[in-house]
């Protein structure tokens, strides 16, 4: 028994030592990759990018190739973290997340703060906390990234020869969290005699959800700080069990009119728990539906049953709960007003006018 335990400890030590050697080799390769990206060799060999060349010739994924170049390019900016990795305090995966964060946050990058987190967290947890950090230093940039993910979500439906529906697609983190929140309760094992594998239970849950006539109430819980709700600088993102950190703009939309349980925190203390019900409800909601009947975005006629109530002046910013300050908007247009940064204003004659977000273009090229 002692011999087996001794062998186990020996194997554990060897694996840790081997991983440190691998990390050091990955760091060396990262330096080479960043230097290689500055040459034209990859172009001369017919690759579109240096990442493509590394991916194909080094037999790695696109993410791995991108991580190598990112770490190599930011190595000098992360000198303390590189030394920490060389000493075994953190791994190369921590360093890759650090480099990606440095690229995303630019002048806001604070290596010492991130390194303190990396020393205490696993690579997966560190990546999650790095997203909170990115939100805290530049919430608008983080929200723009979330917008891109929403704009690129897609779902393909096709019918096989035997009539089965084939589904393939990608959802953004927030949309995916909503779908999982709906499916997870229905996909749980029903007991000792439920021998269905998880993919089968998910499929059954999806069918059960869609054939229930829309009567199933989905319980989705979001934890947010007051600072996040107000969109204050330095605030972390909100959290949900099935999602990466959620931007303050999404929290603002959900706080406008939603069917989501909210937990508000201040100084790590729960100060408010809201029930999963619409904030615009009862007689007021019936009056809103009677007046608007459908989405009020010009040209949209999505029915009221598919709409949320939107505050023209959000209650966070002092807007009241009177019906004159509320309109019905479908999910798409409600999203555009908050995350998409469109504005919806009421003109003097009572008409609603959407205003596109301000576009910032680069400065014209200076004379040579």
Total strand segments: 9
Termini separation: 77 Å
Query: Into how many domains do the coordinates divide?
Result: 3
Q: What structural class is derived from the secondary structure elements?
A: alpha+beta
Summarize the helix and strand pattern as letters.
HHHHHHHHHEEHHEHHEEHEEHEE
Poorly predicted runs of 5 or more residues: 213-217
Strand count, sense and barrel status of the largest sheet are:
3 strands, mixed
Overall radius of gyration = 25 Å
Strand content: 5-15%
- Describe the global form: globular
What is the average per-residue confidence, as pLDDT, rounded to a whole number?
A: 84
- Order the strands across the largest sheet as they lie in space: 3-4-5
- The helix content is 40-55%
**Tally of separate helices:** 15
Task: Write a compact overview of the structure shown.
The protein has 368 residues and is of the alpha+beta class. It folds into three domains: 20-137; 154-277, no CATH class; 282-355, no CATH class. The chain contains 15 helices and nine strands.
